[in-house]
Amino acid sequence: MFAVIKTGGKQYRVAANDVITVATLAGEPGTAVTFDHVLMVTNDGSTQVGAPLVEGVTVAGEVVEHTRGEKVISFKKRRRQNSRRKRGHRQDYTVVRITEILAGGETPKKAAAKKTTKAAADEAAPATAE
Q: How far is 45 from 40, CA to CA, in rounded Å?
């Protein structure tokens, strides 16, 4: 099963457990991210193509790290004019691990597990304080 998602103005073909590098996203490493702009989904030989998006399908992922790309040098020279300009640029990226592709309005398993453990901890804390 794979999907084609759109984020940061680019399209990516992703499957479960893929690691992709996308434009900078908000969130600390370890936080869950969902991609709602799903353009196509393939599952067991059947393909759904959106017009422009596939309804009810999301892709869940986890932020691995924030990183920067290679340095790109922009050098301009106007010959015989004693004119030169050199600039460097490094693009910011976010590395994301795709955890699962959710069809039919499902919720991410990992995010649901984190919410339940936090809720259980909140319930247990007042009981022990009394």
A: 13
Confirm if 108 and 34 have CB atoms less than 8 A apart.
yes
Q: What is the extent of the structural domain holding 71?
A: 2-129
Single pTM value for the model: 0.74
Partner residues linked to 14 by β-bridges:
3
Domain total for the chain?
Answer: 1
- Assess contact for 82 and 119: CB atoms under 8 A: no
Q: Answer whether 88's CB lies under 8 Å from 74's CB.
A: yes
Give the pLDDT confidence of 23-45 residue by residue, as tens digits: 999 999 999 999 999 999 998 88
Answer for the pair 26, 32: CB distance below 8 angstroms, yes or no.
Answer: no
